[in-house]
Structure formats: C-alpha cells, structure tokens
Amino acid sequence: MADLKVTLVRSQIAIKPKQRGTLRALGLRKIGSSNVLPDRPEIRGMLARVPHLVRVEETE
C-alpha cells in the first residue's frame, strides 16, 4: 500500500478555522513541515479541503 508525503507550502494565516483544523489533523503546523500518511479515502478527503495549501507526493 502506498503512502502520501504531505508538505505544508502556504501559510495558515487568513484561512478558515475548518481548514486550520484539517491541517492540524494532518499533522502540519509550520510551513515546510511534512508528514507521511497512509493513502486512504479519509486522508484524500482531508487533502481535498486544502489543496491550495499543501503539496502531495506518493511514496512506497
């Protein structure tokens, strides 16, 4: 099963509280921080809420 490496590339300033909560749930706090997450529908849905703030790469 593949994993997703998620990196925060834009600031959390001036975004909606729901989007800020989604980033926190993904484990991203500062610009440039990364987290490796399993490739599941729940994670994909969370990433669909904040595509303009993160960069996603598939890893094995």
Itemize the secondary structure elements and their pairings.
Elements: E1 3-8, H1 17-26, E2 34-38, H2 41-49, E3 54-59
Antiparallel strand pairs: 1-2, 1-3
Helix pairs in contact: 1-2
Proportion in helices: 25-40%
How many helical elements? Answer: 2
Give the radius of gyration: 11 Å
CATH topology: Ribosomal Protein L30, Chain: A
Span of the ends, CA to CA: 7 Å
Could you describe the 3D structure shown?
The chain has 60 residues and is of the alpha+beta class. Helix content is 32%, strand content 28%. The longest helix is centred in the middle third of the chain and has 10 residues. It is globular and about 35 Å long. 15% of the residues are buried. The model has no long low-confidence stretch (mean pLDDT 96).
Structure, briefly:
The protein is of the alpha+beta class.
Sum up the structure in keywords.
single chain; Ribosomal Protein L30, Chain: A; alpha+beta; 60 residues; three-stranded antiparallel sheet; globular
